[in-house]
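As noted in the main text, all predictions were made from sequence alone. Below is one such record, for Peptidase M1, alanyl aminopeptidase.
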Amino acid sequence: MDAPKEIFLKDYKKPDYYFDTVDLKFSLGEEKTIVGSKITVSPRVEGSSPLVLDGRDLKLLSVREDDYHLDSRHLTLPSLPSGTFTLEIVTEIYPQKNTSLEGLYKTSGNFCTQCEAEGFRKITFYQDRPDIMAKYRCYIEADKSLYPVLLSNGNLVDQGELEGGKHFSLWEDPFKKPCYLFALVAGQLESRDDIFVTRSGRKVSLRIWTPAQDVPKTAHAMYSLKAAMKWDEDVFGLEYDLDLFNIVAVPDFNMGAMENKSLNIFNSKLVLASPETASDADYAAILGVIGHESHVSTVLIRIELVLTFGCHSVQYFHNWTGNRVTCRDWFQLSLKEGLTVFRDQEFSSDMGSRTVKRIADVMKLRNYQFPQDAGPMAHPVRPHSYIKGAEVVRMYKTLLGSQGFRKGMDLYFKRHDEQAVTCEDFFAAMRDANDADFANFLLWYSQAGTPVVKVMSFYNPEARTFSLKFSQEVPPTPGQPVKEPMFIPVALGLLDSTGEDIPLSSVYHDGKLESVAINDKPVYGTVLRVTKKDEEFVFSNIPERPIPSLLRGYSAPIRLESDLADSDLFFLLAHDSDEFNRWEAGQVLARKVMLSLVADIQQNKQLVLDPKFVHGLRSILSDSSLDKEFIAKAITLPGEGEIMDIMEVADPDAVHAVRTLIRKQLAHELKEELLTTVKNNRSSEEYEFNHPNMARRALKNIALAYLGSLEDGELTELALHEYRSATNMTDQFAALAALAQTPGKTRDDVLADFYNKWQHDFLVVNKWFALQAMSDIPGNVENVRNLLNHPAFDLRNPNKVYSLIGGFCGSPVNFHAKDGSGYRFLGEIVLQLDKLNPQVASRMVSAFSRWRRYDETRQSHAKAQLEKIISANGLSENVYEIASKSLAA
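Prediction:
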């Protein structure tokens, strides 16, 4: 196919016409749906420019203007009345045939929409761009027996009966919105109802809609929604602005959730939960995504990430950061997504353990964003970075403090309510509200790649000074070979020989002495502003050589390389007052150990695990003063993908062999401690979703996962006991994962038992698919091929694709198999998927994007698949863009 035209930020032009009001009329039918639109149009400037409307897969029935031109992508009206006028269009669409799940489509017998980013053009002809904001009214009519519930945005203003067994509803949204926030749902649904009383005393009706049998599983979702509404009032002073808030759960959805104004549509996996069928991670994801890992092993970490694929932000919080203030164009997507993901992270941190949440967020950043930053799909935070975008917002808060950040948010809403704005507008609000100098901070929005910051330290005992020399570099990325230095906030503390933080009063930097004291009192941690390629900071009155705790709380999304010795890292692991950095010290040590052993295995040397590393993990495991979920995170090794990401030439086989060896040796050396951990953290009490119980289960199950790596009959019986006696999905699935590590009859039997028990719950079956797909069992590609034919699998369902196909791509040793079998499998699936759902297919083909990081044999296999994909007839633009960029890298 011909390469689609690439669009750049510099191409943005203001629209020639604005839309003031939009009246939509839907007549829903079994074979076809008729859509009428009545739009009030105002020219931005008087003139004779044509009005160009977007449209895809539409049948035009009528348009009020006689002079028009129609092609496969646009409806162009060249001759228009002067001044404000009304445009009326009627189209015919076929939701039953819409497998792309964009626009209006059918799912499990119900009508549903997904309009972000460009789905509205599949409903009617429109200026499908986010800077066209209008007030909407939506009239829906349908057969009442088939579709008793008719929902859209805003408030319900009328409803009634019609002839022929039909009925109607009329919805009105008093706030302006772009068309990507339009939503419609119609079907046989029932709701869980509740009331939220705002801080000003208004009563808001809350409803969560699902099929009748799933309503009992929505209690946690309702709790999460009310908690999010209360938190947003308390922390940001933001009150919900309508009388009704609806959530609908659907099983067929490309994304995790969609923040349509007052009618959020959610992937079922992020709404439905019961202790028997949902894990702690599921409950936490629902809390986050509606208000938007504690896992037993790396396998389970990868499973939960796969099963929440596409879920990036707390949907309720979008009501203000995304809906009331939206993005001017899609290059500003991080403006709403990065800000809302950050708000979700803060909400989830306040609901549980802030340290554990921070660790989980940084793991996602490293597992997904950093590899992308280093590959052919590298891009700046603008246009579309969710996770890294949240890190940019976090840096504002780190620099300004909580009060300063709130002042910036208040000014942002005051200036831009009901506007479509840019990242620069948010930056200006933060700067102006605090009279702050952010130097080159805006480079975070325009420069791609992950900055690498190197730190060297020097202590002068005579002068009692401690110096930190920073140097930074942003690696070249496609289209950006040369980079400017970034604005990097480095939060730090200095530890004395007893592990206590040393008081700090001032720092000498850039030729002047700067006070870091607060109210003339020394502080025990501060934030340095690293803005140049090379610079030095000197602390005075430091009584002994300290050990620096750098980048506390992960204060900037960078790769940090320091001159800390292993002994320093072990000291930080044991004593740092910043718990994130305690975890990070252990991770740095683990990465060093793993990379060293990978080098040994490549040189055919004997593999010997450093006993000091074993001792360090034993100390963490045995420290009863630590949060149990933190311990679970701290004793979890870095994943294979993370290690390969920092190798010059990735070696999946060597990394897998090393990680397997370390896990088994740790399990052997710490066997008694791990057994005690399992025993002491069992509970027969009724399931509760709260931090103490989540932490207890997380620690027990990571211990069980380690023990499961040992091929020991007694330990197999232990895992079987945990599986059979489990009273909740968290514990049962953790035991299943432990047993599934080793091929054989026990594994086969327990997998069959699990499926037989849960075969009627599609969300649990998706976990079952993912566990098998991610297995590191040799030659697993054939098992996954067989599962494609399983009666519970459906290639048209995104969740099942993410579980089975996405899960398989999450097994480096099998996906990157040297014989190319994993690549061939994915290539075949991408071409099949592209005919059904290009958006999902484009996500799957992204697994090829870093093919040049591997050896020549693997490169040859991957390249062949990419060439096959881009040469296919009728390939979608979505897949072509990613495959062609990957191939050209």
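Residues 320-446 form a domain with the Neutral Protease; domain 2 fold (CATH 1.10.390.10). The radius of gyration is 28 Å. These features were considered when defining construct boundaries for the mutagenesis experiments described in Section 2.9.
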